[in-house]
Design goal:
Blueprint lengths: L5 H12 L12 H8 L3 H13 L3 E4 L3 E4 L3 E5 L7 H7 L4 E5 L3 E4 L2 H7 L6 E11 L2 E11 L6 H4 L6 H7 L5 E11 L3 H6 L8 E10 L5 E9 L4 E5 L5
Helix pairs in contact: 1-3, 2-3
Length: about 240
């Protein structure tokens, strides 16, 4: 049996010896760790690459290498389809920056998903979400324009869309379906999330309806950083 490569053994040693290191404090530099463990910087770098592949660390240019602080992102029939509420329940303090809602004709796919006729218009909102000023998620929401009239007036730059649907329009949003998978994001999404290259992110797709009327309210595609979130899907009672 082949011996375990040095960098793999070293990645586990770093994980164990610095397990209590605060996520807000940079880990020791490659030079410092090389001296501590008696290996060269290339081996330390390979160990960091392994930890990054496992979404256990984050490298921030100009700031250093940090332990990833991950939060549960829970999805279930009894959980509101709200990023803000879900992340707050996990113990983080989220912030959202919304684009100005824009209205346009619905595409064929959007009409099929939202159950719209051939001449229907949709209102589109793009969002970037932050935790502690760090971009952690993006969202692209498509809503039937007739069901959210004057959304651009009702929704501010930092409002929760779920809260606006409830407060301003009187809807009770619930998930009708949800899908998650790993997917390499487009270049613009990778840039918004501050990624190095275009590594796979968690892609969430879903349809939100009104619990009272059954109307289809929102089709949404979101990218979440896997070094920040553990997506937990709950189905049924247990």
């Amino acid at each position: 049996m082949n011996a375990e490569p040095t960098y793999l053994r070293l990645s586990q040693q770093i994980l164990e010896q610095y397990a209590q290191w605060p996520p807000s404090k940079p880990l020791p530099s490659e030079h410092e760790l090389g001296s501590r463990f008696g290996v060269n910087r290339q081996t330390i770098r390979a160990a960091f690459d392994e930890l990054e592949r496992r979404w256990l660390i984050r490298r921030i240019k100009g700031s250093g290498t940090f332990w990833a602080q991950r939060f549960e992102y829970r999805i279930g029939p009894e959980i509101a389809p709200s990023f803000t509420r879900t992340v707050r329940a996990a113990g983080a303090n989220p912030r959202t920056v919304n684009s100005r809602p824009a209205t346009r004709p619905a595409s064929v796919t959007e009409r099929e998903i939202l159950g719209l006729n051939a001449s229907a218009q949709v209102t589109v909102v793009e969002r970037v979400r932050f935790i502690d000023n760090d971009p952690v998620s993006t969202a692209f929401s498509v809503l039937p324009a007739a069901r959210v009239p004057r959304l651009a007036t009702a929704m501010g730059i930092d409002d929760s869309l779920d809260a606006v649907l409830r407060r301003h329009y009187g809807y009770s949003p619930v998930r009708q379906w949800s899908q998650s998978r790993l997917s390499s994001p487009p270049a613009d999404i990778a840039q918004m999330l501050g990624l190095r290259g275009r590594p796979p992110q968690i892609l969430l797709r879903g349809l939100v309806c009104c619990a009272d009327s059954g109307q289809k309210l929102e089709y949404v595609e979101s990218y979440l950083r896997p070094d920040v979130f553990d997506v937990v899907t709950e189905v049924g009672k247990w």
